[in-house]
Amino acid sequence: MKKLLTLTFILSILLSACGTADATSTSEPSAATTQSAATQMPKPEPTSGSATSLGVRQDALNSLEIMVWSPWYGVESSLFETFIKEFNETNEWGIKVNAQSQVNFTNLYDNVTASLPTPDKPDMVIALPEHALEWDAQGVVTDLMPYAQDPLYGIDSSDIPNVFWNQDHFGEKRLAIPAQRTARFLLWNETWAGEIGFDSSPDAPDDFKQQACRAQKAMLKDASPQNDFMGGWYVDTEPMTAYAWLLAFEGGVLDGSDYRFLTPHNIEAFKFLRELSESTCAWQLANGNPINAFANREAMFITASLQDLPEVARAFASAKNTDAWKVISFPGANEDALIVYGSSYVILKSTNEKQLAAWLFTRWLLDNKQDARWVEATHLFPLRSSTLSLLGDYEKTHPQWAQAVKLLPQGEIQPQLASWRKVKTLLGDGFTHMYLVNVPSGQVPAILAQMESISRSLQK
């Protein structure tokens, strides 16, 4: 076993962490530990008739063109193109926005980074916050604090939940503005839980274990031996799932601005999860579908992202399953855990005029009317609190989405380190490795020690 831990594990993690690391977020500025959603930020309110402090005449914006690169394709790309067309036709300054899709975050990060020394770099990018940190270390990111606080062109941040607003605030700078935000949740079958003796969702790890284990025992009562190992939590090894479980046990990945995985709380978290599998209270299949397993009453709990909820609802309808199911955060002994993450609007340095034009387009995108349309198309969080007043019908037809929105006060941001781009992949790979080779729960400290060592090398 130790040979596997020291050879296969290290090689596979180094290869994957240094490769495609951008499924969702880079020189290291000094970073604080994960911030809570309660941190307060300045909330300027633009005043009609006020003069701008940005030093750009309005007529200088007329017919100005800017280039925006996005990671989107499909529904998101189509809606973004619609927004651009509307903005180009209606904005009072005569600004023209052009856009190119880079298809995904990995391609976008690589292409933007390669373009930075050239005159062909974009004026604005929809990127992950950790990308903005890396580019800022190269001196190419526009500090948006003066724009957000401008008396004429600023934005009222009091309408934006702090867990969204704070991710891109670093030191005295604002490196970006939230573009999209999501989270990973546990989904819980309320009806099934009630039938086996539970009248509420788990509010602590032990409660989670009891429900998962009793659901597995319930699977032993039918005539099919093939499902005897099912019933509990369908194991998910996505990085944000692993990170949320660490925080639920009061652990984490940071010690100041350094990565630290080998801690008592982290050991407790990973041992708890491995022991769930060892006692058959958690399970997974190599080519299985957790959403179908949840809809077919083969799993009491699964893990899913906000944008997955419509698919879950469709799976229940297809299975003719009328069970009530709910969205819950990761249960902790003292506080539950929820990690909020997603992309941001990053404006690269160019001319004062182009930077302002990009800012005005960003601010327009954040208007609650556009925000509501984003929600209806993508099923993600609304970025403005006032947007909820425009989503009454959507909320009625998407009750689990509404439950997720109500959990936002528990939300926490990701580590504000450029290297998080690679280390989050390391976290997911280490978590996956524990299940691929069936690492005994007693070997959890060895896994965490190797993850800590590798993460510090990735930080350099």
How does this model look, in words?
It is a single chain. This protein is α/β, with parallel strands linked by helices. The protein has two domains: 58-181 and 342-412, 3-Layer(aba) Sandwich (D-Maltodextrin-Binding Protein, domain 2), CATH 3.40.190; 188-340 and 419-459, D-Maltodextrin-Binding Protein, domain 2, CATH 3.40.190. The protein has helices spanning 2-17, 74-90, 105-115, 129-137, 145-148, 162-165, 190-195, 205-218, 239-248, 264-278, 290-295, 309-318, 352-365, 368-378, 392-397, 399-406, 420-436, 444-459, and strands at residues 65-70, 96-101, 124-127, 169-170, 173-174, 177-178, 182-189, 231-234, 254-255, 258-259, 282-283, 299-305, 325-328, 338-341, 344-347, 411-412.
Outline the secondary-structure elements.
Blueprint: H1 2-17, E1 65-70, H2 74-90, E2 96-101, H3 105-115, E3 124-127, H4 129-137, H5 145-148, H6 162-165, E4 169-170, E5 173-174, E6 177-178, E7 182-189, H7 190-195, H8 205-218, E8 231-234, H9 239-248, E9 254-255, E10 258-259, H10 264-278, E11 282-283, H11 290-295, E12 299-305, H12 309-318, E13 325-328, E14 338-341, E15 344-347, H13 352-365, H14 368-378, H15 392-397, H16 399-406, E16 411-412, H17 420-436, H18 444-459
Parallel strand pairs: 1-2, 1-3, 8-11, 8-12, 14-16
Antiparallel strand pairs: 3-15, 4-5, 6-15, 7-12, 7-13, 7-14, 9-10
Helix pairs in contact: 1-17, 1-18, 2-14, 9-10, 9-17, 17-18
